[in-house]
Amino acid sequence: MDKGLCRDTNPTAAVKMLPTFVRSTPDGTEQGEFLALDLGGSNFRVLLVKVMAGGERKVEMENQIYSIPECIMRGSGSELFDHIVDCLADFMEKLGIKDKKLPLGFTFSFPCQQTKLDESVLLSWTKGFRASGVEGKDVVSLLRKSIRKRGDFDIDIVSMINDTVGTMMTCGYDDQHCEIGLIVGTGTNACYMEQMRNIELLDGDEGRMCVNTEWGAFGDDGALEHLRTDIDREIDAGSLNPGKQLFEKMISGMYMGELVRLILVRMTREQLLFQGKATPELFTTGSFSTSYIYTIDNDKEEEGLVSADKVLRRLNLDPSLEDCIATQRVCQIVSTRAAHLCAATLVAVLRQIRDNKAAEKLRTTIGVDGSVYKNHQEFSRRLHKMVRRLVPDCDVRFLQSQCGSGKGAAMVTAVAYRVAAQHAERQQILNTLRLSREQLLDVKERMSEEMVRGLSKQTHEQSSVKMLPTYVRSTPDGTEHGDFLALDLGGSSFRVLLVQVQSGKRRNVDMHHKIYSIPQETMQGTGEELFDHIVYCIADFLEYMGMKGRSLPLGFTFSFPCHQSKLDEGILLRWTKGFKASGCVGQDVITLLKDAVRRRQDFDLNFVAVVNDTVGTMMTCGYEDPKCEVGLIVGTGTNACYMEEMQNIELVEGDGGRMCVNMEWGAFGDNGELDDFCTEFDHTVDDCSSNPGKQRYEKMISGMYLGEVVRNVLLDFTAKGLLFRGKLSERLKTRGIFETKFLSQIESDRLAMRQVRSILQHLGLTNSTCDDSVLVKEVCSVVARRAAQLCGAGLAAVVDRIRQNRNLNHISITVGVDGTLYKTHPHFSSIMQETLQDLAPQCQVTFQKSEDGSGKGAALITAVACRIKSEG
Ligand code: 0WK
Ligand code: 0WK
Ligand code: BGC
Ligand code: BGC
Predict the structure, then answer these.
(1) Of the candidates 173, 575, 235, which has an alpha carbon nearest to the alpha carbon of residue 414?
(2) Is 393 exposed, middle or buried (0-12, 13-18, 19+ CB in 10 A)?
(3) From the CA of 121, how far away is ligand 1's center (Å)?
(4) DSSP one-letter string for 779-847
(5) Is 495 a catalytic residue?
(6) CA-to-CA distance for 707 and 269, rounded, in angstroms?
(7) Is 613 annotated as catalytic?
(8) Measured between alpha carbons, how far is 785 from 230 in angstroms, rounded to an integer?
(9) Do 125 and 110 meet the contact criterion of CB atoms below 8 Å apart?
(10) How far, in Å, are 83, 246, 313, 438, 849 from residue 121 at the CA level?
(11) How far apart are CA 191 and CA 181, in angstroms?
(12) Is 248 in the pocket of ligand 3 (CB under 6 A)?
């Protein structure tokens, strides 16, 4: 099995482990009428299967058995498929459905290499079939060709499956634990649900797919030579396909009777039976039918002996009681070997599934069909017994298929239809979250327009992107030095830092910091409580650092939109990111802080600067890379700043040089600039937020909201029955329960499926399927991709503006970036950079992740301000 699953060894593996493209099992919503063909067993059947969903959930079937004459089985391929189509036409005629173009599922019980559900190339015939011109061909095309040739009806061939797969699906309809299909009939084979990550022949790691083992060929590479007897070799030599299907020839119904006959012949020759007198019948290949074994080898030995006598007399032998007992013994041995060999290989499959699930105790069901299993009680009894002996720790149930694999083929077709319909419906919804290049270019253009409106005195008030002057005009020149205190408020954590700046040769920055939490009730209480809490943390830090007595220059990273008229003043325009402390909006936050320090009367500070976290980040990275002229945050919130030409900043006097502008791009779209990109999910997130109608761009990009966008998509999918089988969990209805960090985890590494599963369990979705996990991951990646692209489009507007400001054809620039989402999401940064490169090709942009946070930047800005002040 491992050799067959592995891309490198598959070509030489005996057991081919063929992918079937059957990935989902029925979920009870399937419905409709389906045709099915069942070829390859002892009978050829044509079926009409009616599937009803919901409360009515049931399956009705009509079928007709047709024979496949040996001359057709061994004639030309076109004769065979023409015969099949004639039977189909006859069946449809009888049911008066010839004018309907019904979907069809084709059970074709031979080894086929599938490339998709309705495309399958026959590798080699087995079980006495040998029609020419079929091996190496796509049997679905051959069937379509014969239908076209006949030309009096049309059908939609949706799926082609192996009978093991059909059997698994037939039984899976009644037992959701059924994940293995077993056939012991004319031939033998098994299939099971394998983890995609183990199927190396296919791309994709997510979920499971049914694999057709084609274990009948086990041993074709010599692996069973130590078990095969001369009789086995004789059977093989006399078969239609010597050297092939060696395992099948030791087990299945096509050969079991022959095995017994050859043993009886051998014993007769050695005078051990029938006083050495054989008959022409005994020497005739195939004269000892496998069905004889069913009656001879049964649990009522007496009855079996009577039957043995009858069978041997039919071969014109004159058996004694001993002869009958010996014949019965031979039947028992041949059948027992077959059952035990089958058990051994079945256990290999069970162990594979148990290991895949890392399950202590595996609970599973095996769907079984085939004349040997069904008609030979002793065989199935021995099989069950040996399986339970070999894997006592597994709870294995055998479910005999009552309706044949035709029902399963119809189920696969019905599921394919449902999956296709659901996929189309999901993609239609997800497409509203997918942005085209044209749309992204639009976003860039509109952002550029809003930037100009924000900078212009005339339109600033109306503009959604406020382009706030920061009074940060210069970057460190290396002469700064001293100890500075910095506060960093507004991200996912509040930090107090001591930043020690050294200049000259020993130019360096040392930092000590402590992280404090801001409880929700403080974020949303009164301004006084909030600033008292901030001052309490400062006091604790100064205590901890033993610096209570010192009045250090302070730089305050305050990551909210503030109107500044100077470096040490910041009038809060509005709260964002869940903050709502009263009495702050419209106030100078430095004053609020000073008041709190005064209220505490415990230490004093020298308030020098209030900066936005984007500005702090730009400065922090600028300390290492002078080309860093843009600051970007993609964290709880999102925002950007950059160095703008003074002559363009109409709110501030003066034209010389540059000043850093805090764009507050989170509010882009608040004037409707993004309405044609907003989906119903974005509207729901905005309506339920603490600031409806505000920060629209931020609500499509940042960490505080992406999880909510995903949760709303999942709710919508579930409500439409497109996910979790339509079963909603109470927990998933809880706002904020699908944290954005889950997106990063879910898209993180190869083990995504297990992580998705555990996250879904955490969300109360304990019965989610692999498919559900795959879909959740797809929703996460679509939402995250849109966020990254929107961010890239915004940034393209910024860097292209800087290039145009400087009349350059080409510019190379660095963006300092920080924020949990940017730093932890596995694909966000690369998608954003791709989009940026595509939309601003004349800008070569380097991204520098800020390792020290914006507190360092705030301290550097403070240091520069102190230097400039000291230079007077
Ligand atoms: C009945 C299934 C058919 C399968 C057959 C195998 O409907 O698809 O091929 O069982 O058993 P057999 O007829 O070869 O004994
Ligand atoms: C770390 C910076 C801080 C900024 C934060 C944003 O030091 O100023 O606010 O990144 O990321 P978040 O913590 O919101 O993910
Ligand atoms: C075929 C399999 C089939 C099995 C049972 C084997 O000979 O190769 O595809 O599943 O018989 O019918
Ligand atoms: C704030 C910005 C801040 C950004 C990133 C937004 O909500 O309005 O000031 O830069 O979040 O933290």
Answers:
(1) 173
(2) exposed
(3) 21
(4) HHHHHHHHHHHHHHHHHHHHHHHHHHHTT-S-EEEEEEEE-HHHHH-TTHHHHHHHHHHHH-TTEEEEE
(5) yes
(6) 79
(7) yes
(8) 63
(9) yes
(10) 20, 22, 46, 42, 52
(11) 5
(12) yes
Q: How far does residue 370's CA lie from ligand 1's centre (Å)? A: 5
| β-bridge partners, 741 | none
Residue 258, amino acid: E
Residue 8: exposed, middle, or buried by beta-carbon count in 10 A (0-12, 13-18, 19+)?
A: exposed
Cβ atoms of 630 and 662 closer than 8 Å: no
State whether the beta carbon of 614 lies less than 6 angstroms from ligand 4: yes
Rounded Cα–Cα distance for residues 411 and 103 (Å): 11
Closest atom of ligand 3 to CA, residue 164: 10
How far apart are alpha carbons 861 and 474 in whole angstroms?
8
Distance of alpha carbon 90 from alpha carbon 86, whole angstroms: 6
DSSP 40-88: SSSSEEEEEEEEE-GGG-EEEEEEEEE---HHHHTSBHHHHHHHHHHHH
CB 405 within 8 A of CB 43: no
| Interatomic CA distance for residues 571 and 641, integer angstroms | 18
Please tell me if the CB atom of residue 40 comes closer than 6 angstroms to any atom of ligand 3: yes
Q: What is the residue type of 830?
A: S
Whether 181 is in the pocket of ligand 3, judged by its Cβ within 6 Å, is no
Number of H helices, E strands in the chain: 29, 26
| Grouped pLDDT means (10 residues each) for the chain, 872 residues | 94 96 83 94 91 84 94 95 97 95 96 95 95 97 96 94 96 92 98 93 86 98 96 95 97 97 97 94 96 94 95 96 97 98 97 89 95 96 96 94 92 91 95 97 98 97 97 81 93 91 84 93 95 96 90 95 96 95 97 96 91 96 92 97 97 94 98 97 96 97 97 95 88 92 83 76 81 90 97 98 97 97 96 98 96 90 87 76
Contact 613, 600 (CB under 8 A): no
Secondary structure (3-state) at 269: helix
Please classify residue 456 by burial: count the beta carbons closer than 10 Å to its beta carbon, then call 0-12 exposed, 13-18 middle and 19+ buried: middle
User: Is residue 818 within 6 Å of ligand 2 at its C-beta?
Assistant: yes
| Alpha carbon of 41 to ligand 1 centroid (Å) | 4
Token representation of residue 353: 């599934």
